[in-house]
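Box 4.2: Ligand-aware structure prediction
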Amino acid sequence: MATVVTCETCGSTDFDLHDYCSVMVLSSERALFTLKCPKCGTKVTTLSPIPQDMRSGIAAAARKMNAGMGGCETSNR
Ligand SMILES: [Zn+2]
């Protein structure tokens, strides 16, 4: 069940989740991907299941940065 991402501006569906600008991991399976449209450059944000082959990499990166793993921000103040 691949998620189809559509550009709101030009209607392109030519997106690859592996080619994200940024990703915010919401859970071990879902993340908010920000992708740049290859055709018109519009930034498109999509909530999508993390592709199986990306999960370990994303989880490791998030752990390394100690960030992006949840929606609840813990404030230091
Ligand atoms: Zn576009």
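In the box above, the bound molecule is zinc ion. Residues 25 and 69 are 5 Å apart (CA to CA).
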